[in-house]
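Please go through this chain and its backbone structure tokens and walk me through the local backbone shapes. Keep your notes short.
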Amino acid sequence: MDIQLPPEFPQSAVDQFDLLREQGLLFYFPTDGEVVQHNGFNFEFKTSPSIARKPILAADAPERRGKGGPFVDPDPAFVVARPGPDHVVELSMHAMIRPHYVLHTRLFAPQTDDLDAGDWAATWAVMAAIRDRGHQPPMMIYNCGYEGGASQGHKHVQVFTEPDPGFTLFPVEALALAEKASGNKTTTASRENAPIVQHPTVPFQHFVQRLTGPITPDYILAVYQRLLAEVRRAHKEHVERKLVQATNGTNGTNGTNRANGTNGNKTHKKSASGTPGHSTPALDDLPESATANNVIMTPEWMCMIPRRRGGKDGTGAGSLGMLGMLWLKNAKERAHWEELGMTEHYVWMGLPRYDLK
């Protein structure tokens, strides 16, 4: 399915973004980021009133089952494109990037669904228009499920120009390291079976594949389905490991609960620097998802991250957050990341790397 957007897109959308912001209907507050490193992982924290204003539906909200919500009858002032008969592109009212697009299904579909061929065709139409008309490289994200960081229950992806946090994103590093180790880059001939890699030091499971050659919706769908199979395998293995541990009455090797990022006690006092004084998430604080995930794609690569939990006491992450780019409500949430152990909180929200010592 080949979808073409009007030639005035995306410039017309940028102009509409600026107009809505000037009218006080769209919230965008550019802010400098704070870049820090913890256990070798790069973080960029940005605090913005846009995030403080953003509504997040409860896990059991009726809107997550199709009973209302902002995408059922979208405000025409925010609609900037209709890529095909089944999708709508709106401007995000609570933006962190200019412009920030929300691409949703015209009719309700749950945010727990996989992305299908139509979703990818519409997504790539938006991304290709941004790329081909002289704008910065595009990026898309999909927060699948409440535990994947989805604020709304109506199926939607987000598209924007690729952020620059001031450091190399770990999927890019993972591919570069793997290609250096192999001595060559993936060729077009082998692109369907390109290596799926993980970064050697990132403590939670993730799956990255380079995109090569001509990008088409069918190709993207094939890569997505391949990575999705890895996500499902990882979720299944984690559930099975927990069942074995429960049967054996253990929390992991030598009393360490690798599946939770904590020891076997209900609370674990440890700060982001490894010193006593703060509490990391406790064992089984929240129910775990066995299906939630994050999808991140640029024209160069796709990354998928299996997710167990969306966050703790309002401090969580979606797809961008799991890459280290965190958009926060206030200084209290920033401090909470420290209390939760920074990278330890990532492991608690995602799946641990059992291959790392």
User: Anything to note?
Assistant: The radius of gyration is 20 Å. Confidence is low (pLDDT under 50) at residues 252-283. The longest helix spans residues 217-248. Residues 121 and 217 are 5 Å apart (CA to CA).
